[in-house]
Structure formats: C-alpha cells, structure tokens
Design a protein that fits this description.
Number of strands: 16
Largest sheet: 7 strands, mixed
Oligomer: single chain
Mean pLDDT: 96
Radius of gyration: 20 Å
CATH class of the largest domain: Alpha Beta
Number of domains: 2
Number of helices: 9
CATH architecture of the largest domain: Alpha-Beta Complex
Low-confidence stretches: none
Structural class: alpha/beta
C-alpha cells in the first residue's frame, strides 16, 4: 500500500510517499481501508519531532474515515463493510490501517467519509472544550483564537449552541468573515488590532470567562490579560510555538486565574465518552446545526504541500487528504 512516512524529523520535505506492507488486524483490531485523512497541527508536531513517535520511520496522521475490510480475532460490534471513523491513532496517512475496534465509531448513513474525517479530531476537541474544560452556559463570554481555522470555526459554532457570546481573532478580513459566518459576534483582526484592548473594550473592562487558545507563544500573555477574575485559559495547542516557563504566582496577581492544558486523548479515554461526543457531532451535522468547511483537499501524494499550506496559515476550515482512489 501507499503511505506517507517520516524517516527523519524535519520540515514538510521529511514526508515521503512510500510503498509499505499492508497491515493485518490483530486480536481486537479491524483493518480500515481509508478514504479521507484529516490534516492537523498535531501531525506537524510529530513530523517536526516535537512529539515522540513510537519509532522511526513512522506513518504520520491522526484522523481518518473509511470502510472496515477485515476484522481480527475477538472483535464484536463491528463488521466487514461498516463505515467508520476514528482519531488520535497515529498512522492515518495511509491506504490501510489496523485500529483497535474499541476506538472506531460507526458512521450514520447521512454522514459521508469526507465530513467524518473532517469532524473527528477538531469536532471532538470543540465538544470537550465547550462541554468539559469550561462548560459554557447561556450568557458566558468566550474568546476563540484562530477563529477561521477548522477547529476555531467549530468551537465558535458549538459555543453559540451553548448560548455563549463569542469573540474571535483572525489574521485577515477574509478570515474574519469566515469566523463571523460561524457565529462570532465580534472578530478582531490581530494583524492591525490589539486583541487584548478590543476584548476589554467589548466587555466594558470585565474580560471574558474563557479563552480557547490553540496558538500558544504569540497569544499567551495577552490571553491571560483578556480574562475576568477567576477566568479560565484553555491552552489546547501551540501553533506559534511553546509557551515559555512562567511563575504561577502571575495567575494570582491577575485575578486568581485558572490555566489548563487539556488534551483530546483524556476526553475520549472511554468508549462511552467517545461515542457520546461523536453522537452529538453527527446529530448536529444531520440537523445542519454544525457546518463544515472542507474545500481544501489534497491527494495523499501531495501531503507535503498540505503541511506547507497549513504551517503558512494559508488555509481556512478543514484540510483533508483524499486517500481512496489514489
């Protein structure tokens, strides 16, 4: 089969389009023929060596949708021919992958492979951030960084469903319009506006209840300053680089703030939690309450170009790889 492997950590050029042996499912596993794989910043971090893979070379990618073509010993509840999706399992930039059956979810008939691959990682992230990390309630205020990105647009939509008043940041007028279409009440164009000053102005000096920050180094200090007393900074990514060490006493001085670094794995750790979150997402897709922007699709062989575009922040919405039909 074809797969995108990293033999040595580096830039997008480290992604190699290789011919490798097709895996077989072990006990408790299913073999999935992948149709689409999502592209996410965590894939960039693995490629660059900021997260340690099991070994080199490794197949990159953490999100996919496809069809079960073989089942391993002891598997129940999943059958050949089932349409499934999964996330947070390294190795999705490939035509086939063996996956623990307990980690896949079946797709409703009205959810296609493209939508499923687009919503698994970023959708479940938006869900846990708005329902668990800081459970939004009607009237709460939230600041969402990178509001035009795939996860940013989903967080905005789910936050609005929860009744929150949502502000967002974006780098250009075009991206700002996408964040507004997702439901942001105000979008701050950070390339020409100070987002801290704007948030204070928009909240009459109070600050927001929560900041959902996937950017990291470039936004961290001002994100803290945007919070009201006892507010929460949910730092769930670091696309601009890691945050420098700091004195936790700063949190007290700025108003008894809370800082958390949540991760998706801990929020889909049980089968029940995974199914609960994805059931909500699939239902919202069916009803039209959740809209996906999946215009940017690259063939598997052009994964390096996809990474280049993602790192340059030239993409909006969800970035996908078309694997089936290569």
């Amino acid at each position: 089969m074809k797969a995108i492997r990293v033999h040595a950590n580096g830039g997008p050029e480290a992604l190699r389009y290789d011919e490798v042996e097709t895996p077989r499912p072990g006990p408790g596993e299913v073999l999935v023929k992948i149709e689409f794989s999502g592209v996410n910043f965590i894939d960039v971090q693995y490629r660059a060596g900021k997260y340690k893979p099991p070994q080199l070379p490794f197949v990159d990618g953490m999100e996919a949708a496809g069809t079960v073509v073989e089942i391993g010993e002891g598997v129940t509840g999943v059958a050949r021919g089932d349409r499934v999706a999964y996330t947070m399992i390294l190795g999705t930039y490939a035509e086939y992958q063996s996956v623990a059956a307990a980690r896949v979810v079946k797709l409703p008939d009205d959810v296609d492979f493209k939508s499923a691959a687009a919503v698994m990682l970023q959708g479940t992230t938006a869900h846990y951030l708005t329902h668990s990390t800081y459970p939004l309630a009607p009237g709460d205020t939230a600041l969402v960084h990178a509001g035009a990105g795939g996860v940013g647009q989903l967080i905005i939509q789910v936050a609005k469903k929860r009744g929150a008043r949502v502000f967002a940041t974006a780098g250009t007028d075009a991206k700002a319009e996408l964040a507004r279409e997702a439901g942001a009440e105000h979008v701050i164009i950070y390339t020409r506006q100070d987002f801290e000053a704007e948030v204070k102005r928009l909240t009459d000096g109070r600050g927001v209840d929560v900041v959902y920050d996937s950017v990291g180094k470039d936004t961290f200090d001002k994100s803290l300053n945007c919070l009201r007393a006892r507010g929460v900074l949910a730092l769930f990514g670091f696309s601009s680089g890691p945050v420098a060490p700091f004195d936790p006493a700063i949190l007290g001085a700025k108003g008894s703030l809370f800082l958390t670094r949540p991760g998706l794995n801990q929020h889909i750790a049980t089968r029940d939690e995974l199914v609960s979150r994805t059931t909500d997402l699939f239902a919202w897709l069916k009803s039209g309450e959740l809209r996906l922007r999946t215009d940017t699709v690259f063939p598997l062989a052009e994964t390096a170009t996809a990474h280049t575009e993602l790192e340059a922040r030239r993409t909006t919405g969800k970035l996908l790889l078309r694997v089936g039909g290569q």
